[in-house]
Design a protein that fits this description.
The chain is of the alpha+beta class. The protein contains five helices and four strands, in the order ββααβαβαα. It is 56% helix and 17% strand. β1 and β2 form a beta hairpin.
Length: 152
């Protein structure tokens, strides 16, 4: 197996996948993920990793080497390559469970949350406008039901 590489753990039972990097052998890193998942499931550890989503679907996911021969890279550069693969595979349609990208800073995630909030707000507004009459009728019925209930 490859050492100093970017790898993916891809479930055989679903579309979920996890992308990581290691300076160790990829097969050893996969075994570590499996061990930590088992400890977490047995309540012997509070440590949670996004790879657990893959292990919840498949206890023996496929190990795919995305890039190897990275001995010359620093840890920071290795993380940048890992982030590249996370973004690339998401663009390719993979259901990547990684919650954080190793090279993004807090400001990046703040901006992501802001964009998500704006998208959700516009979706809620569109839903409300499309179903306004139904929503108002339901609210009116609930109001009168509570009002009549409190009089008794």
């Amino acid at each position: 197996m490859s050492k100093n590489c970017i790898y993916a753990l891809k479930s055989n039972n679903s579309e979920l996948s996890y992308i990581g990097s290691t300076r160790n052998y990829a097969s050893a890193r996969k075994a570590q993920h499996r061990y930590h998942h088992r400890m977490y499931m047995e309540d012997k550890s509070k440590l949670y990793c996004a790879s657990f989503n893959v292990y919840n679907c498949d206890l023996d996911p496929e190990l795919i080497i995305l890039e190897d021969g990275l001995e010359h890279l620093s840890s920071k550069d290795l993380h940048i390559r890992e982030g590249y693969w996370i973004d690339k595979k998401k663009e390719d349609g993979w259901d990547v469970t990684n919650m954080l990208c190793p090279y993004h800073d807090e400001e990046y995630y703040r901006q992501q949350r802001k964009r998500k909030y704006i998208r959700q707000k516009s979706k809620k507004r569109a839903y409300y406008m499309a179903n306004r009459e139904k929503i108002l009728a339901k609210q009116k019925a609930n109001y009168h039901s509570k009002k009549n209930h409190s009089v008794l």
